[in-house]
TrEMBL record:
One of its GO terms (molecular function) is UDP-glucose 4-epimerase activity. Its EC number is 5.1.3.2. It is an enzyme of class 5 (isomerase). Signal peptide: none annotated. GO terms for cellular component: cytosol. NCBIfam families: galE. Residues 6-281 form the NAD-dependent epimerase/dehydratase domain. Keywords: Carbohydrate metabolism, Galactose metabolism, Isomerase, NAD. This is UDP-glucose 4-epimerase.
Length: 373
């Protein structure tokens, strides 16, 4: 008997697919909706190859309210949503802001409206540490706690703040409306998960990040440099006030991050807190140069890079203080930066075309052998 059924928007994307896997491995049924704009349906097959269970998949855009209504109608058993579907590149968000507001904010409103019609009360939202902006502007806010003042410095971050506000207002209203009617109001809940820099791949080597265009994150870009697909890495600025002049980020293994979403969902279902925000991170900051060094070590050679000017909207330090999630969600990161680099290299080296190729037979054999033990 399934623990529950969860709709995962953006569930064929990087973090969405790993969260779908974690849900299936922990007794949930999963329904995925994704428009495949920057992902591949093959992710559904890889999830099944790893855990032996299959998520239902529908190609639906999160801004398509009628399409979402159909999915909820087909799956009346859905009781919760984990919401990833969004455009997510900081630089690009400043170039096409209207599209970011249309998809990220508009899509979230469409989703909440469809959820309300289907009487689905729980939402776990994939927010971002970018909501804090430059936390160094406030004394004693590094590593960043949840009570750090919100102040995004780019369009992407502003869409995340707006969605957090919409979810909060919506859940509060649903609770108040239910109270007035004398109906159980505690069932309406939302988790706002603010996290930092996801990285790594599945240790089996058959599942990882497979962006369809140019990746925007540091480690996937380093992976493409390592395979020769890209000539060099561009480092945006080496004049920050850090030990080596490059920006500091909190890197978190995608498996740990997926477990964090699972922990937040379980917390909502068990504790019914209304709306709560949690930071998911390791609490350790690493500079860009430290990451290049760590990944180069795994690859076995120095990877070329070039320092260019800073990107608009980038800040010095995004390191999480995850104490609240550690205490309340009983969650903390378990995998290291070295694990993330090793897992990513296994994925990239064996799957240079990502999901546009079959995984190497020996990796599948190793996976099967591990299951049989």
């Amino acid at each position: 008997m399934a623990v529950g059924t969860v709709l995962v928007t953006g569930g064929t994307g990087y973090i969405g697919s790993f969260t779908a896997l974690a849900l299936l491995e922990n007794g949930y049924e999963v329904v995925i909706v994704d428009n495949l704009y920057n992902s591949s349906e093959v992710a559904v097959d890889r999830i099944e190859a790893i855990c032996g269970k299959r998520a239902a998949f529908y190609k639906v855009d999160v801004t398509d309210e009628a399409g979402l209504d159909e999915v909820f109608a087909k799956h009346p058993e859905i009781d919760s949503v984990i919401h990833f579907a969004a455009l997510k590149a900081v630089g690009e968000s400043g170039e096409i802001p209207l599209e970011y507001y249309r998809v990220n904010v508009g899509g979230s409103i469409s989703l909440l409206r469809a959820m309300t019609r289907a009487n689905v009360p729980n939402i776990v939202f994939s927010s971002s540490a970018t909501v804090y902006g430059d936390a160094t502007r406030v004394p004693n806010m590094i590593p960043i706690p949840e009570h750090c003042p919100i102040g995004p410095t780019n369009t992407y971050g502003r869409t995340k703040v707006m969605i957090e506000t919409v979810i909060t207002d919506h859940i509060d209203a649903q609770r108040n409306n239910s109270k007035k009617k004398g109906e159980p109001f505690e069932k309406w809940n939302g988790a706002l998960l603010r996290y930092f820099n996801p990285c790594g791949s599945h240790p089996s080597g058959i599942m990882g990040e497979d962006p369809q265009g140019v990746p925007y994150n540091l480690l996937p870009l380093l992976g493409k440099v390592a395979t020769g697909e890209r000539e060099k890495l561009l480092v945006f600025g080496d004049d920050y006030a850090s030990k080596d002049g490059t920006a500091i980020r909190d890197y978190i293994h995608v498996l740990d991050l997926a477990r964090g979403h699972l922990a937040a969902l379980n917390y909502l279902r068990e504790n019914k807190p209304g709306v709560k925000a949690w930071n998911l991170g390791s609490g350790r900051g690493s500079t860009v140069f430290e990451m290049i060094k760590a990944f180069s070590k795994v690859v076995g050679r120095d990877l070329p890079y070039e320092v260019v000017e800073r990107r608009q909207g980038d800040v010095l330090n995004l390191t999480a203080n995850p104490a609240l999630a550690n205490a309340e969600l009983k969650w903390k990161t378990e995998l290291t930066l070295e694990d993330a680099c090793a897992d990513l290299w296994r994925w990239v080296e064996n799957n240079p075309k990502g999901y546009r190729q079959d995984p190497p037979a020996e990796l599948l054999e190793t996976l099967k052998a591990g299951k049989a033990q």
